[in-house]
């Protein structure tokens, strides 16, 4: 639908603009349509729209249109900063897409991956900055020296006395800016050939931010930075960096989905639309772009298509802190944080296809209105007892958490003592750290030595001392694996980790092509089942237990709702 400012675009066209001051020093812009395969060099803008939408008038092609203060400040930077004036053409979604034309929006969102890929550079506009903030950003190049000067941690009092250092505190509010929380910026940054981070008049190469800032924070494991780095943007940058390195991997779509559910967007459906440029093209083609559709239908449709392409490992993402009645239990709620860790893809609980000799199909409905999935698998165990685990998600172990942790260890040791002598204590330890044991890369000491050191350090913590550096990676694994989890035993004396929502009588299933077992609960209709989440039972994770069940002859079809 054309109007006086926006003429109709062909499906292979997009608009670019140039910002400038007119003779009265009023910010204006000219906008022109180009073919996606024939266009001038341009920068694609990555920015947060801001809360004050449509608050400031600007002249575009001689007509007045209201834009946000955030976009206005970005245009002012392009005009006033010589370093940002090349290339001179700019793509900014709010102006370059007719926001009142739903059909055009649907087409432009589908080609947004091309727009960011073909940009000469992506400009990350984080907002205006005062002198102190911009000076603090310029210290990124000196971060290594600054961290090297930070003495090791010896006590909590010492750490807290240093946490007010201006060089750190000035960065904290910067990395809490809206840009670092948005859903859309994930594909905008990951698709970029080159990117620059801009704050006010300060511009820094994005890769330099990642390499220097993120790298130095990770090198500071024995320093105060380790305890406060989650406040310094570490988690945000680390997640983007990890995802960039996994681009094209078999589990990329699933990692992407897990990341995006922890980010924010104005429209719930944008949890999906904001990553269309990154997901599998065959999956992308099945997603309808329509802002009038309820988000649950979009989430279900995405899960159905991902299940076709990735198999039951999609179920690993299903546990959510909040679950609306509109979503079946096997579909992740992208508007809620994940309940559990997601790093369990590396196992092969039922992937010994050569051994099983059978490849039964998953029955997946084509319409979002059909909420069930028929999954072939084997019931491996019935849950006996369930034991709570401490929540370590805050990143710092308090005295209360430490005591809870020691109690959980006591539970596990008691269970082990009640079992026959064939049960190895190493399996006990592997169960405690769940699916993220591989994060111990680079640590060569036997796992029992590490476990015993962890216990000693926790006991020392109760006496006022901090745990030390060699234990840091191990503790991080514990924190990740125990998120939203509980310790359980089965009726046949297996020990495992599973979703904290599980209870006695639930069943552990392994589905064909799944990396990990899952815990399910039968519904009252005795026909359908509720998926609770993935489980970690050490002796089930390599596929041999599944093979021993003779799956070719004994598998069942489970209807998950």
Q: How would you describe the overall organization of this protein?
A:
This protein has helices at residues 69-80, 93-96, 102-110, 112-118, 131-138, 143-148, 156-162, 166-169, 171-174, 185-190, 206-219, 225-228, 234-245, 252-260, 270-273, 281-285, 295-310, 353-356, 399-418, 425-432, 447-462, 472-481, 544-548, 551-554; strands spanning 13-21, 27-35, 42-47, 56-60, 63-67, 89-91, 121-125, 195-199, 202-205, 373-388, 485-490, 495-499, 507-511, 518-522, 528-534, 556-560. By secondary structure, it is an alpha/beta fold. Among the domains are: 13-125, no CATH class; 353-560, no CATH class. The strands form 3 sheets. Strands 6-3-7-8-9 form a 5-stranded mixed sheet, with helices on both faces. Helix 11 (206-219) crosses helix 13 (234-245) and helix 19 (399-418) crosses helix 21 (447-462). It is globular, with a radius of gyration of 26 Å. The two termini are 42 Å apart. 38% of the residues are buried. This is Heterokaryon incompatibility protein-domain-containing protein.
